[in-house]
């Protein structure tokens, strides 16, 4: 019974670990915090594995749980010290989370620009681009209408592309 | 249509959500508009960065998560089976089981002997009854006719 449970957990984990990790990482912008949150999310999944019946919506459940954890972290940080949070964010923005090599300049520009997006917009963008969710699922997780998700996503993409274009020297007339 | 509309088409096209008719319009526009061409190039570059990032996952996190999974819950029955008993307790238990087995075996043999004796006695009694029956004098039956007519 326990072995069967472990196999089931292992299958879900390997299929969904990356979308969950990237969502959390892009939201909190700290690899250590992201790892802690992702660990909590999957430990919760293991505890509730027997009660989960609809395995098709497991990604939705994981991202919803991850979102609660992320916002819980934001609240905790805000309560602790708002100024410290802002300072940390500035430090994190200037540092490279992935430790990539210099030649990948565009990669760093893109990552920095994604990091500069406001949290509410960044969340929509990351859920779509990194976690692979559809407009319906994003609207359910974030709690806004599908049309609003679509229009916000378009304006985020436009803004991101324009900012990246400026920095890499592909200036548009 | 403005360039903004074609930019939306570019995203729909990359998301595989643009129909054939609009695809034709988009490609016709891209062949003429340098700005939208650059927009498409940057979008593709960003998408390739995202695709590369998406494959990253810290290897240490796998180990960390699997090591922190709660240990197996052992039921009372399983606990009883897996409990470690002292050696002398186990020896005593084996001795008691052996003693009970021998007692049971001797009782079974005793009952078997009694049954055999009873069976022999019954056979003897049957033979005696047969002999007694055979030793009796034969009885002759004479029919008497009572006819006064």
Output the keywords.
heterodimer; A: 173 residues; mainly alpha; Rna Polymerase Sigma Factor, Chain: A; Arc Repressor Mutant, subunit A; 2 domains; globular; B: 149 residues; 6 helices; 73% helix; elongated
Please indicate the count of domains of chain A. 2
| CATH fold assignment of the largest domain in chain A | Rna Polymerase Sigma Factor, Chain: A
Q: How many H/I helical runs of chain B? A: 6
Helix content of chain A: over 70%
CATH superfamily of the largest domain in chain A: RNA polymerase sigma factor, region 2, helix turn helix motif
Q: Return the CATH architecture of the largest domain in chain A.
A: Orthogonal Bundle
What distance separates the N and C termini of chain A?
64 Å
Total strand segments of chain A = 0
Q: Beta-strand level of the residues of chain A, as a percent range?
A: under 5%
Number of strands of chain B: 0
Biggest sheet character of chain B: none
Rough outline of chain B: elongated
């Amino acid at each position: 019974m326990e072995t069967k449970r472990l196999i089931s957990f292992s299958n879900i984990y390997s299929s969904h670990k990356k979308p969950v990790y990237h969502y959390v990482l892009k939201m909190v912008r700290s690899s250590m915090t992201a790892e802690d949150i992702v660990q909590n999310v999957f430990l919760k999944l293991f505890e509730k594995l027997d009660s989960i019946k609809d395995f098709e919506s497991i990604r939705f459940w994981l991202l919803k749980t991850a979102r609660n954890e992320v916002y819980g972290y934001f609240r905790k940080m805000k309560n602790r010290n708002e100024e410290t949070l802002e300072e940390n964010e500035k430090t994190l923005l200037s540092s490279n989370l992935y430790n990539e090599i210099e030649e990948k300049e565009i990669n760093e520009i893109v990552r920095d620009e994604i990091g500069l997006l406001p949290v509410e917009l960044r969340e929509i963008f990351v859920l779509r681009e990194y976690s692979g969710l559809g407009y319906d699922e994003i609207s359910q997780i974030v709690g806004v209408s599908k049309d609003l998700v679509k229009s916000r996503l378009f304006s985020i993409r436009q803004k991101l592309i324009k900012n990246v274009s400026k920095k890499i020297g592909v200036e548009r007339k | 249509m403005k360039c903004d509309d074609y930019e939306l088409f570019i995203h729909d096209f990359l998301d595989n959500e643009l129909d054939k008719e609009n695809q034709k319009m988009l490609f016709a526009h891209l062949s003429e508009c340098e700005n939208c061409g650059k927009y498409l190039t940057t979008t593709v570059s960003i998408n390739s960065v995202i695709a590369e990032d998406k494959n990253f996952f810290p290897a240490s996190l796998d180990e960390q998560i699997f090591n922190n999974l709660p240990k197996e819950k052992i039921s009372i029955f399983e606990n009883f089976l897996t409990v470690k008993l002292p050696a002398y307790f186990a020896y005593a238990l084996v001795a008691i089981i052996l003693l009970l087995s021998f007692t049971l075996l001797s009782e079974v043999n005793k009952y078997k002997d009694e049954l055999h004796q009873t069976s022999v006695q019954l056979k003897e009694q049957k033979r005696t009854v047969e002999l007694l029956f055979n030793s009796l004098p034969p009885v002759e039956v004479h029919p008497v006719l009572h006819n006064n007519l």
